[in-house]
Amino acid sequence: MADFRVGITCVNSLVGQGIVKSLRACDLDGRVELTGFDYVPGTVGAQWVKPTFLLPDILRPGVTEEEWLEALMARILERGLAILLVGIGFELPLLAKYREVIRERTGCTVLVSPPETVARCEDKYLTYLFLRDHGLDPPATWLPEEADAVTYPAVVKPRTGTGSKGLRVVRSRAELDAALSVGQGLMIQEEVGSRETEYTCGVLVFGGEARSIICLRRTLRDGNTNAAWHDRATPPAVEDFVRRTALSLDPFGPANLQLRLDAAGRPRLFEINLRFSGSTAMRTQFGVNEPEMALKSLLGLPLPAFTPRFGRVLRFWEELYVPEGA
């Protein structure tokens, strides 16, 4: 009999699979009974976590928030879940909006930050304003109507979204105008540093305390980390900056900070995602198990003392055979 019951949304996503791998890798394995949620049947995540329930596809026209929420809460009650972990970014605004409703009606704690904090990080221009107003020296940022003030090179990007989707580097006004002509909801940001000085940084905050921090260099494929390095030579200024930023933001649980070092070696942050990272399982390989730390923090269990490992982690494809009828 498991001691605790925990749900994971979008259990087949890169984030969801990373959460499952991490919980299997710690001493909570066997003590925590997992329940999965997803939007697509027949996935690897559903094979790993049984039962996994399908939710109404909230991204499909005609599916209402109320329908989605009632289906989720019914399963939370049925399974007796104490904690719900978020496995995909598009659920963050919804779960933030309804986190208190879910807690009051089911007793389940959703590991998601308050709605105003989530909104501040979902919109990268609002993120910029927050960083600027807190003296955290973000890259210079402009809205399309401020195009005359842009300095080059610059990056045109959507105000919402993750994974470098829709990003375009421009080096002249003509290139800027062309990039801005393709759609709405764009912003322009000073290009700083290089891919060689880019870090993806994870931090867990509970009660105004940063309980774990890890800063990795990485390379991307299709917008996701395919290789990561944990380097002893990471400048101390990176971790110091991550801690200061996270405590200024004060999320509930995980935050992922994407930053680059500029020519002067200063961290310049350009994106914050308030969820577990797509590199969660990689971080666990480096000795920092964020899902374990989060659950133990919420459950009041003794906190782990992580021993970081240094080197690199490579991501690769793997197949899973599912027998007939399974």
Automatic annotation (TrEMBL):
InterPro entries hit by this protein: ATP-dep_AA_Ligase, ATP-grasp, ATP_grasp_subdomain_1
Annotated PROSITE patterns: ATP_GRASP
Domain ATP-grasp: 103-299
GO molecular function: ATP binding; ligase activity; metal ion binding
Keywords attached to this entry: ATP-binding, Ligase, Nucleotide-binding
PANTHER family: ATP-GRASP ENZYME FSQD, FUMIPYRROLE BIOSYNTHESIS PROTEIN C
Name of the protein in question: ATP-grasp domain-containing protein
